Amino acid sequence: MAEPGRGVEELLERLNEPQREAVSHGAGPLLILAGAGSGKTRVLTHRIAYLLRTNQSRADEILAITFTNKAAQEMRDRVELLVGRAVRAMWVMTFHSACARLLRAEAPRLGYTRSFTIYDAADSRRVVKKALDELDIDSKRFTPRAMQTQISDAKNKLRSPEDYRQMVGSYFEQTVADVYEHYERDLHRMNAMDFDDLLVRTVNVLELFQEVRDRYAGGFRWVLVDEYQDTNHAQYRLLQLLAGEHRNLTVVGDDDQSVYGFRGADIRNILDFEDDFPDAHVVKLEQNYRSTQTILSAANAVVVNNRGRKTKALWTEIGEGDPIRVRETDDEHAEARYVAAEIERLVDEGTSRSEIAVFYRTNAQSRVLEDMLVRAQIGYQIIGGTKFYERAEIRDAIAYLTFLVNPQDAGAFVRVANSPKRGIGQTSLSRVLAHADALGVPVWDAASEPERVTGLGTAARKAVGRFMSVMERLRERAERGAPAADLLEELLRETGYVEALEAERTIEAQGRLENLEELVRVAREYEAIAEDPSLGEFLQQISLLADADSIRDDEGLVTLMTLHNAKGLEFPVVFMIGCEDGVFPHSRALDEGTLEE
After folding, report:
1. CB 387 within 8 A of CB 548
2. How far is CA 579 from CA 124, 193, 365, 572, in A?
3. The pTM is what?
4. CA–CA separation, 455 vs 469, rounded Å?
């Protein structure tokens, strides 16, 4: 909590000169070019505190945006240490969380209810697959994943199905246009949005409704954005709409750390900031507090020749440090043998395995190294495996809860109606969905009267009836405000889900049960901290949570990961393998017009 009477001078005294300049900047656009390890989070949080302590802003006039839930929580915690309870009135969150919060209030203007479902990548892919099937398109030739990638890219660029169709130039693009249109229609009919829609629909509602734009752009008089180099066009447009009038936009980023072009990030957003705001004040944070000068000099030498970059040179007071060692080997097998041998030597000399990491450009590079580590009996972990919220049993439990909240969600119905197996096959599910479509009613209503579904066999009719009878009881509990954790435990028992896993009597089934117990704990933790807990809000938090399975330092495992996953992490000992043309830099990054690696 902030100490009473802590002054502005005390806030600024532990900052270096460029940091103080950024923190104390007044009104108007501000670009903070923050090199790696230069204290950018410290600058952002102190700037927020400075705005409050100098009475330039109220807490509820501040919108602070970052990309990950972890970064948002860290920022929120640090701001609370500086300003105390005032942080609760601010919006300190990710782009997607902020958009979801806004849309819960404004979605009815776009034809959705406030209880719309948020579809993650797997949910979206299922809807894409359904579109391919219904359009009679070969899903082996035009895979759901490929279609999904193209649709996501279009949305990141704010291209509607109609916009996309006008740009088609090949049979593949024509197919994408057909699938995109069908996919959007299905999503809207199911009262659902995918992750990209959270941004797109927020931009839509701000552009279409002046009163909405006035409310939010006028309400958030100060907008601060972290990792600006990673913003895509939709995020760029959103920020323009929110800050275009008052222009009190602070962006922090580093064009040298732009690594998410494959996700739609547009480096031009940060490079062109001074064109968008000719009167922008620019501050460079070049003092590094993390690395040795040897590391920084090497990094500077690598990026200095990149085209169009903002000039900056990182430096440190830490000292020169250990030299960088370069080892040339005959092939990837010799390289892996060398790395394994070096790890063994380091461990024998007292280095913990958890202090050692191996980075590579693509996941495919890990296989040979894994073989060598197994032979050497060196324990390791790969970051980027199956995430908690992507596990089948967790997705099933969330789908059950989702169907209770959103009776129009056909995707949730299809996922859980026969999980565990209860005699409701795919054909029966399709007939229930077709009946709902024909009548124009939510799938819940259609399934609640299975005797009216054309072509549904006697056994399937009884199975659907029993399933919906259980769901009706659970829905009544949900509508009476039952806590999410209690409801979750109850549905797992009453639907037979736990019983089915217990009957398997396998280690895998036991692991799934433990995962479900963990989900119940997540729900209890949510209820303990939420101001006004509800099942809908709990599901929203789960949908937005990009769970990164924690790195287990205490298990003494060497960590293997791609360079993209390594961004922002620190290890005392690092091996970078595959540093050769065509691998790193990757051959795809050598094309003209692509951001250099």
Report:
1. yes
2. 36, 41, 11, 20
3. 0.79
4. 21
Cis bond before residue 483 (omega within 30° of 0): no
Residues 6+ apart with CB under 8 A from 451: 461, 465
pLDDT tens digit sequence for 520-542: 988 998 999 888 899 999 999 88
Q: What residues have CB less than 8 Å from 268, skipping those under 6 apart?
A: none
Burial 355-370 (b: 16+ CB within 10 A, else e): bbbbbbbeeebbebbe
**Helix, strand, coil: what percent of the chain each, to 5?**
60, 10, 35
Dump strand ranges (E) for 36-123.
62-66, 91-94, 117-119
Segments in the chain below pLDDT 70: 1-6, 259, 262, 384-387, 545-555, 585-597
Each residue of 164-214: pLDDT tens digit? 999 999 999 999 999 999 999 999 999 999 999 999 999 999 999 999 999
- Residue 385 φ/ψ, nearest 5 degrees: -80, -155
Report d(CA 577, CA 82) in Å as an integer: 42
User: Rounded distance, CA 594 to CA 585, Å?
Assistant: 12
Query: Is 117-190 a domain of CATH 1.10.10.160?
Result: yes
Which residues have a Cβ under 8 Å from the Cβ of 429 and sit 6 or more positions away?
413, 414, 417, 418
Amino acid at 472: E
Q: What is the DSSP letter of 140?
A: T
Q: Return the CATH architecture of domain 8-103+200-285.
A: 3-Layer(aba) Sandwich (3.40)
Phi, psi (degrees; rounded to nearest 5) at 446: -65, -45
> Where do you find CATH 3.40.50.300 in the chain?
8-103+200-285, 332-385+551-590
- Please identify which residue in the block is written with the tokens 């209030």: 105
Tell me which DSSP letter residue 594 carries: S
Q: What angle do CA 83, 85, 90 make, to 5 degrees?
A: 80
Superfamily of domain 332-385+551-590: P-loop containing nucleotide triphosphate hydrolases (3.40.50.300)
Determine the Cα–Cα distance for residues 491 and 474; give it in Å rounded to an integer.
Answer: 7
Q: Decide: 453 and 429 in contact? Cβ < 8 Å.
A: no
Which tokens is 234 given? 């939709």
CATH architecture observed for domain 389-544: Orthogonal Bundle (1.10)
Q: Which tokens sit at 532?
A: 């006004």
What is the pLDDT, as a whole number, of residue 383? 85
Beta bridge partners of 381: 559
Q: Position of tokens 């199905």?
A: 161
Q: Which residues does 581 contact at the CB level (< 8 Å), separation at least 6?
A: 590
**Stretch(es) of the chain classified as CATH 1.10.10.160:** 117-190
